Each structure stands twice: as C-alpha cells, then as structure tokens.
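Researcher: Let's try something more involved. This one mixes different molecule types, so please make sure each is placed in the same coordinate frame as the others.
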Amino acid sequence: MTSACKVDRALVLHLLGCTGASLGSGLDERLDAAVERCERIAQPKSAWRLFKTRASRDCIEVVGTSPALAGSRACEQLAGSRGVALLACTLGDAFDREQGDAAQLAVLDQLMLDAAASSLVQVLARSCRAEIARAATTRGLFAGAFLEPGCSGIPLDVQPGLLRALDAQRVLGVSCTAYGNMVPSKSLTAIVGLFDEEHADNSGCENCSFSTYCELKKRGVSCTQ
Amino acid sequence: MYPVTEHTIEVAASRQLRVKDECLARVLAGEEFLLFDGAMGTMLQRSSSLKAGELPELLCLTEPDAVTAVHRAYVEAGSMAVTTNTFGANARKLGGKARVQDIFDAAIGCARQSGARYVAADIGPLGALLEPMGTLSFSDAYDLFAEQVRAADTAGADLIIIETMTDLLEAKAAVLAAKENSALPVFATMTFEESGKSFLGAAPDAVARTLEALSVDALGINCSLGPTTLRPILQQMLEVTSCPVIVQANAGLPQVVGGVTTYPVGPEEYCAAVSQMIKDGAGIVGGCCGTSPDHIRGLARLIAGDKPRKRSHRRLTSLTSARECVELDGNGFAVVGERINPTGRPDLKDALLDEEYDDIVDEALSQVQAGAALLDVNASLPELDEPEVLAELVKQIQEVCSVPLQIDSDNPAALEAAVRSYNGKPLINSVNGTKESLEAILPLARHYGCAVIGLTLDERGVPSTARERLEIARKIVEAASAYGIPREDVIIDCVVTSAATDQHAVSEILQAVFLVKRELGVKTALGISNISFGLPARKLVNATFLSAALACGLDLPIVDPQDARCKEVLDTWRVFNAQDAGAHVFVGAHAAGGDSHTALAPCDEPAEAPSSPAPSRETAGTSRLHALVVEGNKHPVADEVAALLEFVDAMEVVNGHLIPALDEVGELFESGRYFLPQLIASAEAAKEGFEAVRSAVGSLEHMRGPIVLATVRGDIHDIGKNIVAMLLENYGYRIIDLGRDVDPQAVVDAVNASDAKLVGLSALMTTTMESMKLTIDEIRSQCPQGVKVMVGGAVLNEEYAQMVGADYYAKDAMESARIASEVCG
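Model: All components are placed in one shared frame. Result:
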C-alpha cells in the first residue's frame, strides 16, 4: 500500500525539542525546505496483515506465522487479544540515500531533514493504524494500542520475525540489522492487538521498562509519539 | 614486479561455458525464445502447509511432492525452464534449519521430476542489505552466494538465475560468485519501482551496462510491477545491451490488505502486455508473483513458432555507478575530476594515512558540483596498504557520490581490490603498452567488467612522435580485443609531458589525440595539468592546452573542475560542440558577469569598495561578526572576517569575536531561550568564520584536544555525534571522528594513536548500549589510565552513564563542550 502523506510540522518542532510554532526568521525557511525535501524524496509504503493469536503462560503465539511474541511485557500488552495486526511501514531508501548525500548538507539541515522524516513515518503509521481500526471494526473487534518493538516494552528481537511474517523484504524492501536497526532507517514495525472490547492503552511511558532512565520522558517527549 | 593477485582471474579467464544443449545455445545467442515458469511462493501457499513467514525452501525437504506439482503444472502449461524453489536458500536465511546443499539437492530433484527441459537454480537476495546502506560486507555476501552456486552446480542445475535483486552491488556479488564457482550460464534480473529505479536507486541502463560488462548470459527485470509498467524500463535496457533480455513481471502490484494478497492482472491482460515487450526485443519471458500456469500457457501460445526480434544497438563508451551512466557520444566530452590524488597533496596524504575520509568525500562532492562527470580516485602512497585503502576510499566515495569513478593505480592488486566491490562499471586508469602491464591489467578489466584507459608508453618509455603514440595505442586496443574487451571500452591517453621540458612534444600529443580517434575510432583521455609542470601561471597554461586538446577531439579531459579558467574553457567548448544546446547554460552563467579576467587588466581608477549591508542585530559592545554568529546568519560571515582581518590579527578574530559569540549562544541555549536548531545555526555560522580565518592566514593551530568521537558498534544514527563534533571543532578542539557503527577496537586504536585524553561515545538505540559498555571496557583495559569517556544519546542519562562506566554524561552538545574544557583545557 502506498500513501501520500504530509509531514506533521508540529511534531517536527517537538522532535527538535522546540516549544512554540516558529523558530524565527531564517530558520523557519530552512525547516520549510527540509519538510519539502522530505516529502519530495520519501516513498512511503506500508503493509499490514491480521493474524489470530493463541496465548500461553509466557508467550503469545501469532497463529499462521513462525514468530511468537515472548516475554512478560508483550504478554501483558496483548493479554485477552483475539488477534493482532502486524504492520511495517517505510519511507524507502530514497530518503537514506539523500541522508547519505547529506555530507553536502549543513548539520542543521541534516537534523531538520531527519526530524521531518521521523515525523513522516509516524504520520504514515497513524494512517495504517486507522485502516487497521476500520478493518477490526468490520470484524466486530477493537484495535488496541500501537506497540512498537523497541518501545512500549516490546523487545526489539521480535522485529525479524515480524518482518518475515509480512514478507517485508520483498514487499517493502525493509530488513533489520543484527542490532535491530531498521534498514531503510526511516521504517518502523508495530503490533496492534485486536480485542473484543475497547482496550485501555497501556503502551505509554509509565509502562515502559526503560521508564526509569529515559531522558526523552524527562523532557516530556515519548518515543511512541 | 607486480604483486600476485588473490582472486580467481585464472579460473574465470579460462571459463568455458557449460551449455546443456544446442537449443539453449541458440537462446543465449538471441536466436530462440525461452519460456520460464511463473510464481512459486503464491502457488505453494495454496497447495501446501506453508505459513506466512516460514521458509518455502524447506518444503523441498518436507513436502517435495507439493513442490514438484507446481513445477509440473508449469511444464504442462509450456514452460521450457523451471525455477527451483531455492529463492532464499542461503545459509543466512536458513539459519541452521537445513544445509544449503541439501536444499539444492532436493529442489533440483523436484524440478527434474517435473520433466522440464531446463532446471534453473534460483538465487534470490540475501535478506540483508549490503554496506554502506546495510551491514553485510561484500565479501560475506559473495561467500553466501558462492555456497549456493557450488550447491546448485553439484546438484546438477542447467543454469543459474539470480533474481529479484534491488541492489546492483548485491547482484554483482552474486554474479561474481556464479562466474567464479561454476561454468553454468548465468542469468540476472533486478526489480524496479514506479520511480523507474530499483529500490536502492539503481537505474535500468546502469544495471544493463554493468551486468553485461560482467558477462552475464542474459539480463533483465522481474517482480515488482505489472507488465505494462515494466515496459519503459525494459526499453531502457534493450537500448544499451546486446544480451538476451528477460522479463518476468508480477501479475500487477500485490495488494496486502486485511490478510489477503491479491494480484490484479489476469492471463489475458498479462500476455497482451508481454507481447508488446516481445515486439520490443525481449527474448526470455515468464512470470513472477501472482502469475499462474494460465499466464504461462498464454505466453506459450504467444511465442509458438516464432523467433526473438533481431536487435541492434549503438555501442557507445559508457561508465556507470549504480545510479548514473556517463555515455560518450559524438563530440561530447565528460570532465574527469583529478583532485583525489595524494601526489603533491600533503592534506590528502595525511587524511589517507589517518583513514579520515570525510574531507576526501567533501572534495569528491565539490568536484561534482563544479561539473565533474567522473572522478579519478588515487591512493598511491608507498606507506599505505594500497589495495585496502583504495577499496575503502572507493566505498566511501560511492556512499555519497553518484558519479562513476575512474580507479587510478598501476598496482594490479589495488585495482582488483577496488573494482571487485565497485558498484557499477568503472574505468581503470590505467594499462600501458608494456607486456607486463597488458598481461596484468587487461584480464582484470575483462573479469570485473571495466573500461580501461591505455597509456601510450611501453618498454621504451613515452615516444616522441604522434605516430609512435598511435602505434602503441593500436597495440593496446588489439590486446584488449584479444581478452574480449570491446573497442568502445578502451580509452587512449596519449600521455601529456611538460611543455617546460619539451616544447615540441605539445603538438605531437595533440596530433596523437586526433590520429587515435581517426584511425582507431576509440575515445581519448588526457591528464591536462601535466603540461604546465615547471612553468609559472600554471592555470593559464593548463586552460590553453585544454582548449587545444578539445579542438583535437579530446573526450575525457582529466582536470581540476574547480579551476575557474578550466571551467570557462569547458563551458565555452560545450557551446562549440553543441553539448550546451542553445547555449542556455553558458548564457545563464556569463550573461551578467562579463569577463572574469578584466580585473587582471591595468586600470586607472581604484575599484569602489563594495558597501556592507547594515548590521541587523548589532548591539553595543559586540561586533557585527559576533551578532551574525549569535543570529546564526552564516552567509555574510566570511566577508565580515575578511574585513576584520585588515585591522586585527587572526587570534583576535577567534578569541575576541567568535568564541564570545559562541559563549553567548551557549548561555541562550542553557536558559531555554535558544533551542537546538538555533544552537546549530550559530555553530554553522561560527564554523564559516573559523574557515575564513584559516583560509586567510593558513592553518590555524588547534590549541586543544584531540578528542575521539564515535557512534558505537551496531548503531547507525550519527546526527547527534555530528553536532557535538561541529561544536567542539568551533571551540578549537581537534576532532578525530570515527563515524558510526564503530568497532570498540577501532576506538581504542584511535585513542592510542592520537594520545587523546577524551573520548565521546554516542548511542541512540537501547540495543546498542551494550556496545557502549563494551567499548568503555576496552578503553579501560587497553588505553592509558588518564583517558576520560563521555557518553550521550537520546535514551541515555546520568545513571546509565555510571552503569556503563563512563566518566561523564553529556546531555547535549553544550555540555560536551564544558566537559572537553574540563578534561582538555
């Protein structure tokens, strides 16, 4: 699936650690240029599929796929789910190549482009979550929180299995390194639980295993935003 | 003596293709159609117990009948060749679940049982991206592919088909593995996106030229898009290759929604679209994802009793990266940037010795911006391990620079190391007319699919006359032809010698260029700047000779593209030879500017000094330069520094203006009135100021440091580290920036080699923080006790810094400057 989506400028400013809606003369123009550049080069793509789940004591098995979501946090988040949607989305490699060429960009322009891309991939993910919610509704189910591996207490090591289940290397050109870095870098994967009833979103920072240390949280920023 | 090369040139040079029968030989000659099969994975999902995410290749062992049934359905539909169920059967993807050899044995057994005439051993992508985009090295990729090729050959395949590649470099690793480990015919196809490029940006013409140069037996397109969308991509390939061309399209774009994968293009529509491509010249057809035996049955009817269209194309000299082709056609010339060469460049020499490639990459980009279509890359220094350094340098430049490269060395081992993992079709600079050089270099060029520059010198040295140069050129062209290198891939350099030592040679060189083009019909190159050695006003001499050489038909001037005089000559010649159609570029560049050399003419009246714009934020007690830095307004900074330097010395500009401005910015940041963007904008402005001071007074002594910076192993996020590097440089520290994904030992080595007192480590990912701890542990055990470590990164904090054993936690770039001041003074 390919989406035409726009950078969320407010989120970009948030990611840059800025308050307010403006950076002031000169910098606003550079930010506008970064946003335009990001939207021009990004090739947004996403894929998601619905799977049934089967819960055991310390493991949620995603039926019909080889990966299983082990670990207490994953089990807590998905307890009581009837199924899950597995999702991957990416801005494609054109963006990484542009960042590769970023040696010709000033550091600030690199930073702004990076923030714009981070915003855009979140916008893309939001749009997928809305589609998943609609698909869940047609099945009489409710979509739960958006759980990203590496955030929300979901370990990064589920990433390879999740990508395999979506055939993401072939469909989206997305893979991940041994350390869990997504390639292309502006990509994300997520798990959305599907429940019989509306489900409380407990994916926030307070439930994150890294909550004690996280500097983002101290600054009022969440990695899930 | 030339060093002995490591790889398997001898094997490849004597490679006798093992073609199963006469019919396949006619297919490879473009005289017969070959019909492949359609999708395997989507068929297996219907007919076996295959689950999403499982490896379909394992079914060759567990459900061989299901696999054979798919093959048989295609054979009954008319497929001459079936593709084994081994798309992902590499050791990395199998992950120990089965042996590669066992899968290929079983898969080829299944295919044979179907009664197919030809069994094509399928090799797909490895499922991990190669460096620099990913983390898999070229040699590791090669090893994985080689294991598959050997398994396929042992199991009795009739040909190797490498397919669904998105990365031309990965395709090259697979093709080399196939050529060096088997005598079977090699087919290679890549997938392309709606943009007309592969997912990793490879252009169809660059793909076709590179694969043909690597001597694949057929090349083309598979997967990705539907057949209609693939046609323009196919046409681009057909235009530049004489190889048989393959098309195996998807039945449209897969739509994965709500758990169901569908493909919209049915057999009738598919065959109608492929028939157009057959008319264009495709000779090998089949299907990919979503196609079925019905699609193949339609194709069989389409080609029954017919022969592929006879094709012809103009054979032009071409060089490629993965993303760009440079084609030498007619009178047009292409500029080769000469500046990446350590000879006479102490700065470049130091950078190569220190393995600090950033400045060299900047130099590459600057040359491209100045108009270079190709870049010469040379790393010849006696104190360097040239093969290793040249290969790394090429990799670093290709990461950011899309123009094709000219690999410059007379060391065959260095050339081989660099061209083996080069992404595209490079130009080797150079071979010469000596027997030793011809025998060492030409097999390399042939094996790795390179064009080659031939220098007109031999055992007797550089000849004095044009005719003698021509004869050596003829010998090189003929020798290349004997190795199978086509004439268009040989470019002759008639060897420029200094006008100061032999004035008569100049006209002989120019005449030789003319003769070589007229009598041998090959393209020519000249290293222009050699002409001016020993003379004053070298740029004037170079530009004059360049103009004369272009008049003689020079195709590849090797020059400094940033030299203004050369650029003017080149701009003007692009008008003369109609490369600049309508002279639009020339008029745009020169209409308003007049003649840039009039300033050199004597004048009676002193020129009026340009007036400075009014300062926009000047405040009492601070200078305009100070205000510009605080504002982050970098463009006027260089002029302002130049103006200040007329009245004060360099250190006063630094200590009296730039540093106080940065301090004020730091305070604004600390107090929350400035955010990161403003901080960086100011740092950029200050950097302009430091650069302007340096260029005015020569090197500005680094007073402090050095400081080693790195993003730790496994982490590829480096923007934060780059911000710290820039800020610390502004504060006068010498920064040794090791980049991203840095091995702990590399950090230790850099600290010990530089005697650094401070190391900065960055990690963005929670998963890479273990690497941070490991790096710090290695520093503690291998470096002197006084070395301090500061750490930073989005998910780090003071407690974690202590936990991993760091001395300091830098919560932001300003904090890193304070820490640096405490440790280094």
